[in-house]
Amino acid sequence: MIEMIAQYEFMQRALIAGVVIGVIAPVVGVFLVVRRLSLIADALAHVTLSGVAAGLLLQKHVPFFQGVNPLYTGMGFSLTASIFVEHLRRLYRSYQELAIPVILAGGIGLGVVLISAADGFNVDVAGYLFGSILAVGASEIRWIVTVGVLVLMIVILFYKELFALSFDEESAVFSGIPRRWINLLFSVAVAMVITASIRVVGILLVSGLVTLPVAASLQIAGSFRQALIYSVLFAQVAVLSGLAAAFYLDWASGGTIVLVSVFLLLTVMGCKRIGRVWRKRLAHRAQIS
Amino acid sequence: MAESVLTLKDVHFSYGDQTVLQGVNLSLRRGEFLGLVGPNGSGKSTLIQLALGSMVSDAGEITLFDQPLRRFRDWSKIGYVSQKVNSFNRGFPATVSEVVASGLYGKLGLFRRMKKNDWNKVDETLERVGLSDLSRRNIGRLSGGQQQRAFIARALVHDPELLILDEPTVGVDTRSVEEFYTLLTHLHREKGLSLLLVTHDIGAVTTYVDRIACLNKKIHFHGDPDEFTRKRRKILSVAYGHEVQVLKHDHEPVPLA
């Protein structure tokens, strides 16, 4: 595969996109999961679908939009939705998860209506639903890298504040951390990560890439730092496996990435179990002798 | 010693037409350990929220460190342990050190990273509360009493002059409660820390505090704990509206390990 990467530009693009997404998706995912908001990723991805559909529709009818990648309108939609989610969470303090089905259903509803109103597109909508790592275009790769840098900067610069707010919002606010701004900035980061990941894993599976590596890492992480490092490692393994599977076997990259993530999670759980049994046995033996 | 850390003058507060606080006067002098007791729903937590500026009183005057609450900005002078700390997510992937360090983040401010001396500060504080050995342990794996110490450490790590604790002994076993009071007395004596402890546990608190205030909508008693103990029956029957059984803790404070 290394030869192929050296030889073909599309392989280089796929590799760069994969590595970037494999870093930012799980990093943002850790914060989402510990805040019990894992499903936000899914909801925003579906809103992105309606944004992509709107972009395609505009491309068809408005000359100005012909050169605009529909992922941009998709990102606009998911940014708006992510701000709306924050608002809904404040509105329904005791039903915070309610924001998710509201946004998710709204997103699909609008997407489906827009697609049907357009009476068919030249582009394959399925490409957005399932993603394809090998099809990342030259202009898209610049955009994915830019998003990657921006998201990493947000997380690095505001790591302290994000950690404090995720662990205990009340105390964080009391100690003087600007909750609104940080949460808003984080919502923007989430929306960007989701739109950038759609090319690689697709709308339907974005939440898998955002949450599954984190789920595996939470099984073994003792500290927050470890949780971040392990989830990035797991995500990298998954993304690179997806790339290999897409190239050699012509499998869907998104599906492979998610399946590998599930496999990693099961492996971690299995290893943990074996470790526990093993320790018990050793302790038992020590007791006997 | 005359400087006042917190005062409330004729403070009123109500939720809709339900009066929560009615003309409350309260003062906490520098270096004093004040116990605020009262039955559930007596307005203790509301009083704290008002004093911390997260709710606004309907009438009256509140000052922090001799400054009107409206103009008070130096929140790093105050450490606060909320009653909600017990309900944190126990599966959260964070070590005791990481949690305690987060108490410094507000004071550090945006864009400033933790430096070596900040981490030293964390270690020092962990030592003060007796958790040095567990600094790298996951916070969810500590016992209830240890978790409580960790949260006190988080509130202490930025060197506040006033520590406010809202019902910190709820859901903690008796032995840990005793250790908890020993720790507070220690901090109070060694560091001259001003303390405001909100609790409904009337028995133990009288043994340790300098002054005690009994609240139920109004302040029914504000003074010396010995006097409180003498007049307890009368005060409590007025404040609580019925006879109250009090568990007494007569032990001397045990030295910290």
Oligomer: heterodimer
CATH first level of the domain at 4-89 and 160-239 in chain B: Alpha Beta
CATH superfamily of the domain at 4-89 and 160-239 in chain B: P-loop containing nucleotide triphosphate hydrolases
Q: Report the total helices of chain A.
A: 13
User: What are the segments of chain A in which pLDDT stays under 50 over at least 5 consecutive residues?
Assistant: none
User: Rounded to an integer, what's the Rg of chain A over CA atoms?
Assistant: 20 Å
Mean pLDDT of chain B: 87
By secondary-structure content and strand pairing, the structural class of chain B works out as alpha/beta
DSSP, total strands of chain A: 0
CATH topology of chain A: ABC transporter involved in vitamin B12 uptake, BtuC
Approximate helicity band of chain B: 25-40%
| Annotation, overall tally of beta strands of chain B | 10
What can you tell me about this protein's structure?
- The complex is a heterodimer of chains A (289) and B (257).
- With 289 residues, chain A is an all-alpha fold.
- Chain A has a single domain (2-288), classed as Orthogonal Bundle (ABC transporter involved in vitamin B12 uptake, BtuC), CATH 1.10.3470.10.
- Chain A is built from 13 helices and no strands.
- The mean pLDDT of chain A is 90.
- By secondary structure, chain B is of the alpha/beta class.
- Chain B has a domain at 4-89 and 160-239: P-loop containing nucleotide triphosphate hydrolases (Rossmann fold).
- Chain B is 33% helix and 25% strand.
- In chain B, strands 6-7-8-3-9-10 form a six-stranded mixed sheet, sandwiched between helices. A four-stranded antiparallel sheet of chain B has the order 2-1-4-5, with helices on one face.
- In chain B, helix 2 (96-108) packs parallel to helix 4 and helix 4 (144-156) runs parallel beside helix 5 (174-191).
- Chain B is globular and about 50 Å long.
- The two termini of chain B are 31 Å apart.
- Chains A and B meet through helix 8, helix 9 and helix 12 of A and helix 2 of B.
